[in-house]
Amino acid sequence: MLFAMTILLTNTEARRIFLLKQGLAGHPGRALGKAGLLDLIHDIGFVQVDSIATVERAHHQILFSRNQTYRREDLAALLEKDGELFENWTHDASIIPSSFYRYWKHKFRREEASIVERWRKWRGEGFEAAFDETYARIASGGAVLSRELKADGHTSGGWWNWHPNKTALEYLWRTGKVAIARRENFQKVYDLVERVLPEHHHAPDVEHDAFVDWACRSALERLGFATHGEIAAFWDLVSPDEAKAWVEAHRDELRPVLVGAVDGKPRASHAFADFPERLGDIPEPPARLRVLSPFDPLIRDRNRAERLFGFFYRIEIFVPEPKRQYGYYVFPLLEGDRLVGRIDMKADRKAGLLEVRRLWLEPGVRASAGRMERLEAELGRVAKFAGVAAVRYLDGWKPG
Questions:
Q1: Does 160 or 145 have the greater pLDDT score?
Q2: What is the pLDDT of residues 152-166, one digit of tens each?
Q3: Quick one: which H or E segment has residue 88?
Q4: Nearest C-alpha neighbor of 72 from the set 386, 354, 338
Q5: What is the pLDDT of residue 162?
Q6: pTM, two decimal places
Q7: Angle at 212 between CA 210 and CA 218, to 5 degrees
Q8: CA distances (Å), 18 to each of 201, 298, 366, in order?
């Protein structure tokens, strides 16, 4: 019996491969355009959506950090006019290429049973009656915002106090019966899927084995190398057991990989058999310093980011202020192939300023003149993108 030879990756090689796969190895100033934007999102897989706009909303910042010719108008056109992107769930709400929509039908079917069971415990018996009523309202009356369906006298609140039609809209969206046609002031506007996505994306259903194969294969393509758990977690479409079974069934296509980690303990992973030939010369990422979104896919898997980059990161939005190590919404800093620090800042649009509150550099990273010049240049670019005129540095922002 022949055994595939194990590929050994140094930590530097591993970081650069992952940066390449996640769209962070190219020059951020190259011309993008709408077609290039669609290709970028296809290549990285998805872009997480989040409502927090401390500087800019997560999806815009994720794309801007990869290419600073990115235009919000191109994203809106791809989502709202062309239907080449759609919004639904990976591990969280995300923008996804519509060419993948047929695979999401499997997720919709899985969600349908689990959501009803969970929500019955939350809302009690009988809440499903609003589902048909809400669907019929959209089918006959057209696209709606959730507030347009709100019952008279209902008191607003968090998810625990959603009115029945809001619950129905979320269910219909999460199970693929309606889609997000557009957003108004970031509020979802729902419509029937067939009126949102072009007909060519309503492909015939994919049978289960082909779906699992696509989910695992496409995840490994975008990760470069991965454990079966990382493969399953990438899209959150298949279970770890399904990913493990896929790896076992495709051993002839895969090679074992030992991935160098910052702590020196190699991580056993998998890659495609032609992995070395595909890579060629691994490009060195641009040396410029870039601000990443807290929801950037590079750091979404916190454990993987810590192994590859030695960078421990947690969002502290829900941590009481006295217990925060850093701040409410702190942005990671990428320089070349290293995560070198984090920064606390906020766009004050009334004052027209990007307010920089505090900078933390990682151990062993110096606040050299060259690095600070690169940071200030990047903050100027971020300020312009956020629509403010200048950067204001608060007293004590710079490490001593």
A1: 145
A2: 544 455 444 456 778
A3: strand 85-89
A4: 386
A5: 54
A6: 0.93
A7: 95
A8: 29, 8, 25
327: Cα within 13 Å, side-chain hemisphere = 17
204 pLDDT above the threshold of 90: no
Burial of 10 (0-12, 13-18, 19+ CB in 10 A): exposed
Rounded Cα gap, residues 400 and 398, in angstroms: 6
Residue partners of 218: CB distance under 8 A and separation at least 6: 45, 235
Please report, in angstroms and rounded to a whole number, the separation of the first and last CA atoms in the chain: 60
Length of the chain: 400
| DSSP H helices in the chain | 11-21, 33-44, 58-66, 72-76, 101-123, 129-141, 164-174, 193-196, 208-223, 228-235, 240-249, 275-279, 302-309, 369-386
Q: Which two tokens stand for residue 241?
A: 């057991």
Task: Find out whether 297 and 290 touch, Cβ atoms under 8 Å.
Answer: no
Residue that the structure tokens 């019955």 belong to:
120
- 48 in Cβ contact with 338 (< 8 Å): no
Give 285-327 pLDDT, tens digit per residue: 999 999 999 999 999 999 999 999 999 999 998 899 889 999 8
- pLDDT on residue 2: 42
Q: What is the C-alpha separation between 117 and 95, in angstroms, rounded?
A: 26
Q: What is the mean pLDDT of residues 328-351?
A: 97
Specify which residues 259 forms β-bridges with: 9, 267
